[in-house]
Amino acid sequence: MKPFAQLKERFHRIKQRHLDPASLQFRLTLEVSLLSILGLSSVAVWTSWKMQQLLITTHTQQVEYIANRFPRDVELYSGMLPVNAGLQKTIDNVSVPGLAIWFKNTDGTMILAKSSQTTAKLMSLGDMPLEPQVYQVGDRYMILYSGDVKTARNQPLGKVYMAQDVTTEQYQLITAIQGLTAVCILATLATILAIAIRIRHSLQPLQEMSRMAGTISAADLNNARLQLGNAPTEVKELAQAFNIMLSGLGDAWEQQRQFIGNISHELRTPLTVVSGYLQSLLRRSNNLNDYQREALETAGAEADRTVRLLQDLLDLARADSGYTRYHLEPLLLNDVVSEVVDMNAKFGERSIQITATENVEAIVDRERLKQVLINLLDNAIKYSTAAQPIDLIVERDEKQAIIRVRDRGIGIPLQDRGRIFERFYRVDADRARTTGGYGLGLAIVKTLVEGMGGKIMVRSTVGEGSEFTIVFQQ
Length: 474
Description:
Blueprint: H1 2-18, H2 24-78, H3 83-94, E1 99-105, E2 110-112, H4 117-123, E3 133-137, E4 140-150, E5 156-165, H5 167-215, H6 233-284, H7 290-321, E6 329-332, H8 333-347, E7 352-356, E8 361-364, H9 366-382, E9 390-397, E10 400-406, H10 414-417, H11 429-435, H12 441-451, E11 455-461, E12 465-473
Parallel strand pairs: 7-9
Antiparallel strand pairs: 1-2, 1-5, 3-4, 4-5, 6-8, 9-10, 10-12, 11-12
Helix pairs in contact: 2-3, 2-5, 6-7, 7-12, 8-9, 9-12
C-alpha cells in the first residue's frame, strides 16, 4: 500500500502543479489554447457558411434562370394559345427534375406542373420570398421563390411559385460540416496538447532554477551553478544573473563565516582570562562590601555567558566550514540517554523520565549526541516549570532509531515553529533574556544531528508543551 500511496501523492503534486491557475504554464497554455480554438472555430464557421452559400448559389442560379425565362415564355405561348393553355405549356417546358412549379391566376385558379405531398404543403403557405432562399419544409429542404407574371400589355396574370428540392445536397452539406467540426475538434485537442508540451519544455529551465533555489544551502553557494544548454536567450540571461547572484552570496557567506570564526576565536581567550581573574578575585578577597561583590559576580556571570556564546558561534563556524569531525560508531542509544540523564541528576533537580521498551542501536557520535540531548533538555527545562516532568523516549520504527524529548511547558506558537532552528531566532525575546538564551542552541542541535546523518522535527501545542523528535537510520 505504501508505494501506491507514494505514487498517488506524486500524481497529486504533478496535477496540482500543472493545473495551478496562478502558474505561468497554466496561463500560457490557456491563453494560447483559447486563441487556437478561436482561430480554428472561425475557420470552421467561415468554411461552413461558404459551403452553404455555394450550395444556395448553385441551385438558385437555375431557379433564377427559370424565373426570368417564365414571363417571356408565357407571353410567347399566350399569343398562340389560350392563356391557361399557354401557362400550362410554359410550365411543362421549364419543368426539370426536383423542381415544382405552380401558378395562381388573379382569380385564384391554380395550374400545376406536377403534384406531390410536399407541393401541397408549399401551396398552403401564404407568401413566399421574392428572392430564391433555402427553407426547411417538414423533413425536406427547398429553395423557394415567387414572382409576378404579366401580359404583353403589362396586365397582371397572377403569380408563379417555384420550389427546388435540395434535400440530398443539404444532407451532404450537413455531413460535411459535421466532419469538419470533428476534424476541428481533434485538431484543437492536438494543438492544445502540443502547446502544453512545448510550453512545459520551454519552462523547464525556470523550474530547474526553482528547484535549485529551494534545495541550495549556504554551504553550496560557491559550487552551485545553473547550466542551461538549449534554453532561450532570455532564460539564459536570467540563469547567468542567477549564477552571479549565487557567487556573490557565496562570497558574502564565506566572509561572514570567516569573520564569525575569527572573532569568536580571538575573543574567547581574553574573555576566558577575564572570567578566571574575576572568579579568583571573588574567592581571595575578603574585604569586599556587598555592592562590590555583587558587581564582580555579575561581571563574572556575563563573562561566562559571553564565553559560552563565543563557543557556540565557533562550533557553528567549524560546522559550516566542514572542520567538525564526527566519530561515528554503532552505539546503544539507551546507554547515551541514561548517561545524559545521570549527568542532569547531578547538577539539576528536574525530574526526567526515560521510556524505552527495547534496546535501540544507531550509528552516531557519542559526544555530539550527548551535546544534542543536553541542549534539548536545557531547552525543555527553561520553558517548563519545575513541577512538570520531562520525558525521554527511545524507540524503533522499522529501520529508524528514534529519540523523543517531550516537555509539558508553554509550547511554541504555530508561526514560530518553522524558524526555531534558525540562528539567533528566539520565540520570546523577553523570556530568552531572563533564561540566558541567544537562540543558538537549537541551531547547533540541528547542525549536529544532520552532521550525523539524522534529522530533527518538532511538534508543539501552545499551553501543552513541545516534542522534539530525532531520527537516525539504523
